[in-house]
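agent> Task received from the user: take the single chain below, predict its 3D structure, and emit structure tokens. No templates, no multimer pairing.
agent> Plan: (1) validate residues, (2) run structure prediction, (3) serialize to tokens, (4) report one or two observations.
agent> Step 1 OK, no nonstandard residues flagged.
tool_call: predict_structure(input=
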Amino acid sequence: PWPKEIIDDVLKTIHPNEWNMYHYVQSLYPKWAKYANIEENQVLVLNGAEDGINRCFQVFVKEGTHVGYLFPTYAMYYVYSDAFKAIHHKFEYDVNKDDIKLQKQKILDDMPNLDIIFLANPNHFLDNLTKEEIEKICEEGKKHNVIVVIDEVAGGFGVFRAKELINKYDNLLIINSYSKEFGLPSIRTGVLMGNKKLIKACATLRISYEISMFSQKFAEYLLDNIEVKEKYCNQVVEGREYCIEELEKLGVKCNSDNAVYFNPYFENIKQKEYVIQKLQEKKIYVKNYRNDMYNGKFEHFITVAGAPKKVMEHFMKEFKKISGKELNINK
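)
tool_result: status=success, residues=331
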């Protein structure tokens, strides 16, 4: 939960007259531009990250456009590709027991066949793109007039951030959000960053007030007090690394690569289902990949969202009870 004193501080920034006025969203732009070390005209405030995805489809995609995305990934990429009657290009993962590798070379090889590509980094399964790999994709995309969109919604916990490449590649757009690294999915606030011409094109569909006054107040407060966000991210990293280490002591390997979440692997599917059931009884929820999802490729995995160490200690306490008393996790 957010500390009450921080919520009170944010509410204090609202002047009584502001409650019955239309607010000035534009004041968020210079604050975000300063945070990202880019210019204001390289920023577009969004009503959540999904607004950025939708905006890219509305501006750059029409019937017959070749759209690339990772698979699996955030489901709205499939939905919008269908809605706009685009031609789908799925870039999947190779799975060898607990080892998961993204088909990165295939992305480069298929670039001449694409018009736009969306790459969540980090994605649901973790073989993150490095700076060098993103640059290769942008360079190859530039040769073939491909727009490269990096979805960094799950970033902020150790993965490379592509904003430093904005001024180097005029075909690059980046979607960011307050939902993960700022810990505020409820304020429905995101940001699209990139080349000035691409941002200007996306801004043609800008609505009058992208976010509410309350969302704006929280968004600006955290940019003005960025140490709050940094402290939270560091706590999540600590909790994530603690949990992965403890799981591996129990013989549970994890697919992990500096994201807010990680994917524990279970050799025995029945054991996995048993663990999930017992965790749910304690109101601890993880994402389960069933046999009927993605052709069963990931059915040996679950996804766990990271949190500060105190939360992850509670998770591990219950997990160890299950694995220690009723389940030999190493078999």
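agent> Step 4: summary for the user.
The CA atoms of residues 178 and 184 lie 5 Å apart.
agent> Done.
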